[in-house]
Amino acid sequence: MRELNNGIKIIGIDHGYGNIKTANTVTPTGIHVYDTEPIFQGNILEYMGKYYRFGEGHKAFIADKSSDEDFYMFTLMAVARELQRVGIYEARVYIATGLPLTWVRAQRDRFKAYLMKNAEVSFRFNEKDFRISFVGCSVYPQGYPAIVERISDFKGTNILADIGNGTMNILYILNKKPLESKSWTEKLGVNQLVIKAKNAVMDNFGVKIDESIVEQFIRFGKADIGVKYSELLHRTAVEYANDIFTALRNYEYNPELMKLYVIGGGGCIINNFAEYDANAVEIIGDICATAKGYEYLAYLQFRRG
Prior knowledge:
Elements: E1 2-3, E2 9-12, E3 14-15, E4 19-21, E5 26-28, E6 31-34, E7 44-47, E8 50-54, H1 70-84, E9 90-99, H2 104-115, E10 120-125, E11 128-141, E12 157-163, E13 168-174, E14 177-186, H3 190-205, H4 211-220, H5 227-250, E15 259-263, H6 267-273, E16 281-283, H7 289-303
Parallel strand pairs: 2-9, 9-11, 12-15, 15-16
Antiparallel strand pairs: 1-2, 3-4, 4-5, 6-8, 7-8, 7-10, 10-11, 12-13, 13-14
């Protein structure tokens, strides 16, 4: 969160399919709605007579994030979590967010209107009352904001791969300048590997494996499971890491001619299961880097008037 001299709070929100990230918080995109107060506490938002629990599981992929109410509720939750860290419960908030690279032109205005549909919002989150005035919103291309504060490092030819839960965004950066004409979005995210791994276990052993185990294996390269399951998950993840590099090569990625930067939750797939030249590939492990970048760009926007 960044604060302007007039008191406005800039809050960057990375609306991922796997996790909702702010500069300081990460929340899985599971959302469950109740008519009455849930039995157990933890990330509960009360709004318009409904109770929303966040953090159990993940939301299914949808191409248009404004097509249902979930991402609006994620936004309220993300704002509340970021403000609650510093004990603020009433604020004027400017939202800084983004969309996948090749979708942002077509969906920016609709997504902005969706997030700004209520200028004044009152709700209760984790037993605290919030009153928020939304004063504006900027929607940026996903991926690039994560590295914008260190763009001076991007000399020569570079390729940025933002591997999220639902998509992989690819962007060329030539001598510190992003090339809009060389940007693409592929449906090749972490969730596709989770599905592939679960299917492999079912096909080979006839049992259902919980996706939380698969996610743990992807994140750490290991899990507390039997050897035969571990070996199968490892083979599946290696194949998927190869698929990622095949997709990159389809867009003329050449490790001898350019440097690859990997951001997003999918960086652990490359780190744990791919063979690569560490001098030619850099994995940026800060999962909140994009949300921080959104805040930085919005802050520059205000400073420039």
